[in-house]
Design brief:
With 196 residues, the protein is mostly beta strands. 0% of the residues lie in helices and 34% in strands. The protein has no helices and 26 strands. It has a nine-stranded mixed beta sheet with strand order 1-4-7-10-13-16-19-21-22, with no helix packed on it. The chain starts with 6 loop residues before the first strand and ends with a strand. The relative contact order is 0.09.
Length: 196
């Protein structure tokens, strides 16, 4: 057991063994299952289930009514909106056990998953990407992409600070500067990178 320095509401359950970093808060009616690793300064909202062997980085915010299933890896600074959904099996059947077929889903640093969106297992959600409310993510999401719809499609690009970017064609590639924080980006095809 390693979760000294964190707050766990008396109505929540923490199975052993697991690791929870200092400064993390686990709120009402949540269940953290065995062999989880949760980093520092996370906020685990009400009625959240974190299944066995899940890995959650530092400063992750998981809002109410989210289940983070086995196979999920959430890197630092990820935001999971209220009632969004992860899955871990492609073809579930109640009468067929597929625990050996769990898929790995990776949510990269700084990504935001909007309220009620669904992340189909086995994909990678890119760094600082942004999935709109209700989006259904069925394939990999590029870094900094804004995706919406069912199935989710790239509709634009987001700064790491959360402001939509407007790209202009300036050879080589397309370039954008965030109107809020001033960060600069370059886009080549469906790949966006932050410039130094």
């Amino acid at each position: 057991m390693s979760h000294s320095g964190c707050f766990v509401h008396e109505s929540s359950y923490i199975d052993e063994p697991c690791e929870i970093g200092p400064g993390t808060k686990v709120w009402h009616f949540s269940h953290i299952m065995k062999n989880c690793r949760i980093g520092q300064n996370c906020n685990i909202g009400q009625n959240v289930v974190v299944s066995p062997d899940v890995v959650i980085g530092n400063n992750v915010k998981i809002q109410n009514n989210v289940s983070v299933y086995t196979g999920c890896i959430l890197e630092d600074d990820v935001f999971c909106g209220p009632s969004m959904v992860f899955t871990n099996v492609i073809n579930p059947r109640s009468h067929v056990s597929r625990k050996e077929e769990y898929k790995t889903t990776v949510v990269k640093r700084g990504a935001s998953l909007g309220a009620n969106c669904t992340v189909v297992c086995g994909i990678t959600v890119g760094r600082f990407s942004f999935a709109g409310a209700g989006a259904v993510l069925t394939r990999d999401v590029p870094d900094y992409a804004l995706v919406t719809g069912n199935p989710a499609r790239v509709r634009g690009w987001m700064c790491a600070c959360g402001i939509k970017l407007q790209f202009e064609s300036i050879e080589p590639g397309e370039h954008a500067r965030c109107t809020a924080c001033g960060s600069r980006y370059v886009k080549r095809g469906q790949q966006v990178t932050q410039e130094d």
